[in-house]
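Ticket closed. Logging final result for Sulfur oxidation c-type cytochrome SoxX.
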Amino acid sequence: MNAHRRTRAGILTGLAGALLLVAAAASAAPAVNNIEAGRALAFDRAKGNCLACHALPGGTQAGDVGPALPMKGVTFQQMFQTKEKLVAFLSDPEKLFPYANMPEFGKNKVLTHQELEQVADYLWSLK
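Final structure:
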């Protein structure tokens, strides 16, 4: 009887662990619609307007004030380690890099936090 309970408890513990891993993996990967929404914001001349300063894949009439994105030889994952740090940078670039010559999209309320996360999801997806 005790062996049966231990086996059942072990199975349930294993299943719970597997479910947690699946949930963590699902939350770590941005939803496709977040990436698409972020791309739309990055290309929107009235909102993100990333193309005013950066060349982006598929973008037209790109500016050259900032580097082409993604930058050659370095990914956003390498630069920021986490998407949260990228969101913080987009919100207030000078807070992370004092000499950043980039608008403060969150601090100046140009983009909402959700929109900043969507732009970060899009940038994170670039290879």
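The radius of gyration is 20 Å. No further action required.
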